[in-house]
Amino acid sequence: MTFTPVPFYILCGSLGAGKTTLLMRLLEYWKAQGRRTGVLMNEAGTVSIDGPRAGTLAEQVMNLAGGCVCCDTKEDLSWGIAQLVRDHGSDVLILECSGLADPAEVIDAVTDAYTARLASLERVMALLHPVSTEESHSGAYVTTQSAVPMS
Fold first, then answer.
1. How far is CA 138 from CA 16, 77, 129, 133, 143, in A?
2. What is the fold, at CATH topology level, of the domain defined by 6-127?
3. Domain boundary assignment for the chain
4. pLDDT value at position 138?
5. Secondary structure of residue 96 in the 3-state scheme
6. From CA 59, how far away is CA 27, in angstroms rounded?
7. Above 80 in pLDDT, residue 59?
8. How far is it, in rounded angstroms, from Cα 73 to Cα 116?
9. What is the DSSP code string of 57-85?
10. For residue range 9-55, what is the model confidence (pLDDT) as tens digits?
C-alpha cells in the first residue's frame, strides 16, 4: 500500500497580522469541500488562545504551546503531523505559527525525510501587518496627489 502525503500549509506572520482570521476562512472553505482538516496551533506562551476557535471548524486541533515551533517545539511539530495524519485521518494540514517563528526554520522542520513521507509542503502564507504612513518615519517622504482628469 502506497501512502500519498497530505497537503500541508504554513501560516506565519507577526502578532495582529490576521493569521487567525485567514485560518478560520481556510477552515470554512475546506469544511465546505468535505475535507478533514488538522490544525497545529503554535503559541509562544503556555496557553493556546485561538485553538478552541479553530476547533469549531477543524476535525482536530493540536496545540504546540510553550515555545516557538521553529526552535523550542520543533520535535513536537513532526509528532503532531504524524498524529493528525495517522491517528485522526486528516487529509489537509495547516500550521499557524506564533508571531515569533522564523519561516525558514519551520520549512526545514517539516521537509525532513520523516515528515515529508506524511505531509507535502504546499504553500507558506506570510501575512504582513501594514504600517500607516503617518506612523512610520517614511511618511515624511510620501506625497499624495489628487487625481487630475485626462482630457
1. 21, 39, 16, 7, 10
2. Rossmann fold (3.40.50)
3. 6-127
4. 53
5. strand
6. 10
7. no
8. 18
9. TSSEEEEEESS-TTTTTHHHHHHHHHIII
10. 999 988 888 888 899 899 999 999 999 999 998 866 555 555 555 65
